[in-house]
Amino acid sequence: MSDQRTALVLGGGGITGIAWEIGVLAGLAEAGVDLTGADLVVGTSAGSVVGAQLTGGADLDGLLARQLEPPTGEQAARMSRAALARYGWAVLRSRGDDVGFRRRVGALARAAEQAGLTPTEQERLDVIGSRLVSHDWPDRDLRVTAVDAETGEFRVLDRTSGVPLLQAVAASCAVPGVYPPVTIDGRRYVDGGMRSAANADLAEGYDRVVVLAPLPRGMGPMASVDAQVTGMVARVAVVSPDEAGRRAIGRNVLDPAARAGSARAGRAQAAGVAAEVTEVWQG
After folding, report:
1. Is 161 a catalytic residue?
2. What pLDDT is attached to residue 2?
3. What is the β-pairing status of strands 182-184 and 187-191?
4. Which residues contact 198 (CB under 8 A, 6 or more apart)?
5. 209 CB contacts (<8 Å, ≥6 apart)?
6. Are 273 and 27 in contact (CB under 8 A)?
7. What is the C-alpha to C-alpha distance for residues 42 and 192, in angstroms, rounded to an integer?
8. CB 133 within 8 Å of CB 49
9. What angle do CA 144, 147, 150 make, to 5 degrees?
10. Mind listing the GO biological process terms from this record (predicted)?
11. Which of 45, 48, 172, 262 is catalytic?
12. Distance CA 183, CA 201 (A)
């Protein structure tokens, strides 16, 4: 087992995705399988927050307790109908052109920011900063995904990239049309989930891989989790919300009111998947 390299992949899924992932991780730990010591942690969007928290030394019980707190003063965000229509148009125009799709949603993000439809970049940095245990990169292998809003280029950020952790996580969480792009080295970046819901292929080459995917499928040319793990030479377990989890998450993944229920659902679901995950992680 000592020479078996492990990877934990944490996918995107908004505020409720953060809560659900923490619930699953806490429930799995209670069932005897602790994923937090993975050799590699890949975080996309919501998963970048959870990944940064875990590798930064946060305690799972404390993280779970925080998700269960009432969302006092927090407002739900949602995508406007105009933004949804532009997403649909980007999908139709892209026809399998994933880079073209990412350029189009990047343009959508910049247009929404210019129109004053998003918070300011500093406001988002403040929000993301409040969620992190530390603003310093951990010594461990944490990889955070983002997309260049102008070129559509996919970028993987880690402690060797020279990019501050706060900016990396904020960029990965910058849902186009809802939150502003984040400035890194003079360029603007948006949500890494615009390439894939989880970017699970970044765990290629590892021996044991567990993927927590609140949103297992993207739209248009976004690669699905199943497509990315198919053919991996590894033991792989993919966990996505069950029926109870989907009900708890609801229709708006950016609604803080659904956070506690999502965390509880993830924790409850862990009991049912613990045997499969244990077999992959420890078997």
Report:
1. no
2. 55
3. antiparallel
4. 9, 10, 11, 12, 42, 44, 47, 211, 213, 216, 225, 228
5. 6, 7, 8, 9, 200, 203, 229, 232, 234, 235, 236, 237, 280
6. no
7. 11
8. no
9. 155
10. lipid catabolic process
11. 45
12. 26
In sequence order, what are the residues at sequence separation of 6 or more whose Cβ sits closer than 8 angstroms to the Cβ of residue 58?
133
Distance CA 47, CA 143 (A): 10
Beta bridge partners of 211: 9, 238
List domains and CATH numbers for the chain.
6-75+119-282 (3.40.1090)
Catalogue the long-range contacts made by 98-101 (C-beta closer than 8 Å, 24 or more residues apart).
98/152, 98/195, 98/221, 98/222, 98/223, 99/151, 99/152, 99/153, 100/152, 101/152, 101/194, 101/220, 101/221, 101/222
3-class DSSP state of 25: helix
Pick the catalytic residue from 191, 196, 240, 262: 191
115: alpha, beta or left? (left if phi > 0; alpha if psi -120 to 50): alpha
Question: Which amino acid is it at 34?
Answer: D
Single-letter residue type at 99: V
Tell me if residue 191 is catalytic. Answer: yes
Give me the pLDDT at residue 80, please: 66
Residue 58 has which token pair?
């946060």
